[in-house]
Structure formats: structure tokens, C-alpha cells
Amino acid sequence: MAYAIARLKKLKFGNLAGSASHTSRERETPNADLSVENIRFIGSNDPESRLEDLVMAKINEVSQHRKIRTDGVYCVEMLLSASPSYFRASCPNQAGYYEQNKLDVWLEATHQWLSEEYGSRIVRAELHLDEVTPHVHAYFVPVDDDGQLRCKHFFGGRQKIQAFQDSYYQTMRLIGLERGLKGSRAEHEDIKDFYRIVETGRNLEVSELNLEQIKAKAADRDRAARQLQQMEATARELAQANELLQQRLAQLEKEKEKYRQQTQQLRDLALENVAWELGLDEEPSQSNRWVGHGHIIDINGDKFQSASPGVEKGNGAIDLVIQVNNYNLRQGLAWLNDRFGESGAERAAIAAVKKQTADILQTEPAPKFVPPVEDKSKWLAVHDYLTHFWGLPSNFVHGFHQSGLIYADSKQNAVFVMRDLNHQIKGAYLEGSEFKGLTIGSDRTNSWFHFQLGERGTSKVEKVVLCSSTIDAFSYAMVEYSKTGSIPKQRTLYMALADPKSTPVERLEHIPQIKTAFNSDEFGEATALAVKKLLPHARRSRPKALSWNQELLLEKSLQQQQQQRKSEVDLSL
């Protein structure tokens, strides 16, 4: 297998003369056959023509916007060649030999590629035939379309160098050359390394070599062995990646077929096929008209219209079967199962239900939530229940009752009004000595029991406290108040969130502070963790007791004990 070879060497200004003296054979070149003449096929053959002058003339065609750095890249030397087996397939180890027709084809393709890809930016190109394998040295001045010197624009980074090699390969493949493995672990060889590699092809006996040459050949064999190992490793990795890719493609094909079947299942049977099974025939003179059994039916997609007077329009396969055969629904489905199989009957049934659903959704308004009826005669009992059993301050409970967020129903339950974040009532939570839970019709996804406290009036909410229950939301606020002696300075929203599935992420993700103040039991910890995944900036706040209400009751009990001891001390005095 013969490969295309493309190498680069970036030249600073100080490197230009040295590179030119080598390629033009102005200095001695080891292993070069002086009897063989090299060919300069781009650029002047004038011996007085200097590479430095050609490069600077090209750069100075346009005024440079930036000063060229002294260590900048002025020129890029390209070395282009092919494996020895391409030039001399019958004897690849016979150094210096080449088949003229192969050389001519390769040189013409290379010359054409240089001209089309880089044009006048190539200021010199030479074919070397005096060494082991034919190769071309081409000098490219990296000026962009605006004439500015920008080497990185062409060869900045691995991807652009790979693109350069890809471009050369796209031309070389037309003459039968292969590209090396893209992404290979093999290290990039620069031009000086190339010389050492091609020299290994010289047909010399070991007895004719000196010690340095023997060492060089041994090093080159080691390099070749390493390259082979690297290529084999790359090939194995590519094979494994290809196998994984094939497995993934097979999986995607299965998923595609699954989705195709699911999509097919959602489509009704073609009415033309059903009409044919029913014994109707399409009328030749009028497209989409089916006749038979005393019926004249016009089919239009998934709808049909009977030409018989007094017969209504129909939709779908089931309607058509029922109308033509005078069946009821059960009989119609049984007939479809007999003619189209179970999957066909299911398709017809699904389509019919979808149609009925669409009709209902267009005409039937969504039910509105109706909150429990307030029973004012039961409020005192509910007030006592909240203050004595749960330990909530009386003035606090009274204030929320006045605002309409808490009231009593006819069964003496405390009704906690649930609202969305635009304050629309969409549910209610009942808390009583014998029952607790949501009222029928409550929207538990888009409404919550919540309230706000803060000194900043109607300013935007800056902090949100998420609690396990309505009672805990009140209790947290009271515990916080007992510690600070005042309501929060920040506008704070307290919310009862029983399940993380109902977290209003889009409304809370921009709030600066989120507290997950759930109970300190296993369920509370799991809920806090779930909310943390939804709102990464949320911070955990645990009660000292199992719940915030228990902590409130403990604080209240301690205060009562302290007051009692103080009273006893006062009496003793």
C-alpha cells in the first residue's frame, strides 16, 4: 500500500538562506547523487535569484498592517512525496530508481495541486531526483487574501495541518495513493526526519556501512517498528470505535422502528382500504366516491360524507363501518379486528378516541376550583385548635384569617388557601383534628399555601423558605421572629412544599436565597436533596427538633417554665 506524504517546516527569516542552499544544492548534501539533475518547476532558474528576495517581494506586494516580528514565520517549506513502493512498485528497496510514467503522473498532480491551492503564494518549487525517493520542496509565503502575513491562518493548530494533509490527499487519491491514519498516535515527522527515513531505502550491504550508518539504520528500524505498533494500536482503537458505532446504529434503528410503529399506531386506518373491505367500489368517473350496498360515500382523508339524504358526516374507520354495516360500536370493533387484525382495530379505536377528545377539548371548559364554603360559626374552635394544639400566636393566626388565607369550614377544619404565584386561588389544604389533606379539585402542581413577610413592603421577594407543611411554614416564621425580635428585613416568601415535583423552578431559580427548611427526618432530607438538584443554589436549614412546629412548641414550653420560675421567685420574696 503506497501513501501520500506531506510535511511542513515553518521558516523564520534567518532560516531562509540555509534552507535554500540545501534544496538548490549550493552546499554539500550527504547521499545526494551529484550526477542527477534536480528540476525547478516553479520559480526562476536564475542562479542569482535568492529565496529571501522572493519571499520579501511577495510580502511587500501589500503594505503590512502590523510590524513583522523578528521571530515570525516568513515562509513555510512543504515537502511532498509518496512511498517508495509507488515510484518503484517492483523494487521498493532500490534507492534512486523510479518508474518515469509514475513520476510524471505524480509530479503533474502535485504541480496542479500547488497551483490551485496556493497560486502565486508558492514562490519556488523543486523536484529532487538525486536522493533515495523523488520528492518536491515547495516554498509557500503565508499571506492571506488581504496580503497580510499570517501563518496561523493557514497552519495554526493540529486541525489546520490535518486539513493541509487532507487537501493533498484528495488530489493524490486520484492517482492511487492512500492517506495515513487520521488521528493516529504516530508523531508528526518534520522535514529533517523525512530525510533520515527515506535514506533507509538505500541498497547497501551491512559490510559496506560504517558504525554511524549501522546505528542510524538500527534507529530507523526501531522507529519503523514503533510506527507500526502505533498504527496497529490506532487501527484497533478505530475497530473498537467502529464496533461501538455499529452497535449504536443498530440501537437507533430499533428505536426508529419502535417510534415508527408507535406513530403508525396513532394513525387511523385508511378509509379507502376500509371501504374496499366493506364491499364498496370506487366509481371510475368520480374520484374518491365509493358505492355499494345502497350507499354512495365520498371519502376525503379521514372524513366521509354520505350522498344519501338525512345521513350525517362521519369521521374515521369505526364510523364508516357502523354506518355501512349498521353495526353498534362493539360490532364495529369486532369487524375491524376480523379484517385488519388487533393492531388495526386498536388504531381505529385510538383515532376515534383522539377525535372525540379533540372535540371535547374545543367545547368543554376546564372545571374551575371551588373552595370549601366558609362557616364563620366554627372559626373560634379552629382558632383555638391552631393556637393551643399547634402553638401558633393568636395575633398571627388572626391576621391571616383577616387576610382570607385561613378560615373554617362546616366540619370545623382549618382551611389553608392555596394560590399560584400570581395570587389566583387554585386549591385548599384542610387541617383538622380528624382529617388533613387537599380539597377535591385542588391544583397541587401549580398552587401552594404561601405568604410573605418583610419590612420592605411590596418590594420583590429576595428570599424563599420552603417547608414541609402549612403549620411548619408558620412555625419557621415564628422561630425566626423569636430569634431576631422582628420580622425579616428582606422580603421573604414562606411556602409549604410537600413534594419536590411541584417546585416552581422557573419562578424560584432567580431568587437570590432559597432555604430548604424541611423536617429533619429521612423524608425531609430526601425532599431537600431533590429540590437542591432543581435549584442548585438552595441551602439546607434543619430544625433542632423533628419539625419546625416541634421546635416552636419546645421554645414556648421553655419560656413558660422560665416565667413560672420567675413568678415563684417573686412570690418567695
TrEMBL record:
GO-annotated molecular function: DNA binding
Keywords tagged on the record: Coiled coil
Keyword Coiled coil: yes
Any GO BP: DNA recombination
Matching Gene3D superfamilies: 3.30.930.30
Domain DUF3991: 385-454
Residue runs in coiled coils: 214-272
A Pfam cross-reference name: Mob_Pre
Family: Belongs to the plasmid mobilization pre family.
Protein name: Mobilization protein
